[in-house]
Each structure stands twice: as C-alpha cells, then as structure tokens.
C-alpha cells in the first residue's frame, strides 16, 4: 500500500463516517469517536482488500475510492445499528 492510498483511505473513512452519522437516524446514541474509528478501520481494510483483488486504490481511481467508501459506510451503518440499541432487562 502506498502512502497516497493510505492517506486517501483515512480521508475517505473520516468523511464517510462523519456523513453517515448525519444521515443514519438514531445514530446520536453512538459516540462520534466510535463511528470515526470504525469508518477509518473499515476504509483501510477495504483498501487492503481492493489491493489484494488487484484494484489500485488511489485518489484518481473511482473504483479505488468506491471500495473504501463503501466499506466505511457499511461499517458506520453497522455501528449505528448495533451499538446504540441497549435495553434494560425487565423487572
């Protein structure tokens, strides 16, 4: 992975995670730092998987940008859907 690919993955992960927090309803129960960390980790993982699959992940490649963006969005969506749904036991 090149430095440009890593910087792109970090920027995409932070941006998509922050935007997903604004879009997903009920995501206010999840801390912002958790959504950002999961977005960055998912974007870097998506970049690594894209690189393994032979897709060049860089700032000029649309598919290389789409894979980290999609994985960051999916990660942030999963966190918003699962982390904030804590219910107290009856009784």
Description:
- The protein is mostly helical and 91 residues long.
- The chain has one domain (3-82).
- 69% of the residues lie in helices and 0% in strands.
- It contains three helices and no strands.
- It has helices spanning 3-23, 32-52, 62-82.
- Helix 1 crosses helix 3 (62-82).
- The N and C termini lie far apart (53 Å).
- 36% of the residues are buried.
- The model has no long low-confidence stretch (mean pLDDT 79).
Give me the secondary-structure topology.
Blueprint: H1 3-23, H2 32-52, H3 62-82
Helix pairs in contact: 1-2, 1-3, 2-3
Give a quick set of tags describing it:
single chain; about 90 residues; membrane; mainly alpha; transmembrane helix; transmembrane; GlsB/YeaQ/YmgE family stress response membrane protein
> What are the segments in which pLDDT stays under 50 over at least 5 consecutive residues?
none
Count up the helices.
Answer: 3
Count of beta strands: 0
DSSP helix fraction: 55-70%
- The radius of gyration over CA amounts to 15 Å
Structural class: mainly alpha
Q: How would the global form be characterised?
A: elongated
Amino- and carboxy-terminal Cα gap = 53 Å
What is the percentage of strand-forming residues?
A: under 5%
The number of domains: 1
Give the helices and strands as they follow along the chain.
HHH
Keywords: Membrane, Transmembrane, Transmembrane helix
Transmembrane segments: 30-50, 62-83
Protein name: GlsB/YeaQ/YmgE family stress response membrane protein
Organism: Micromonospora deserti
């Amino acid at each position: 992975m090149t430095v440009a690919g890593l910087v792109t993955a970090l920027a995409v992960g932070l941006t998509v995670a922050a935007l997903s927090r604004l879009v997903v309803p009920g995501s206010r129960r999840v801390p912002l730092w958790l959504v950002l960390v999961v977005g960055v980790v998912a974007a870097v993982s998506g970049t690594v998987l894209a690189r393994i699959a032979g897709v060049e992940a860089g700032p000029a490649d649309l598919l290389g940008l789409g894979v980290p963006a999609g994985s960051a969005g999916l990660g942030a969506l999963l966190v918003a859907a699962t982390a904030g749904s804590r219910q107290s036991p009856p009784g």
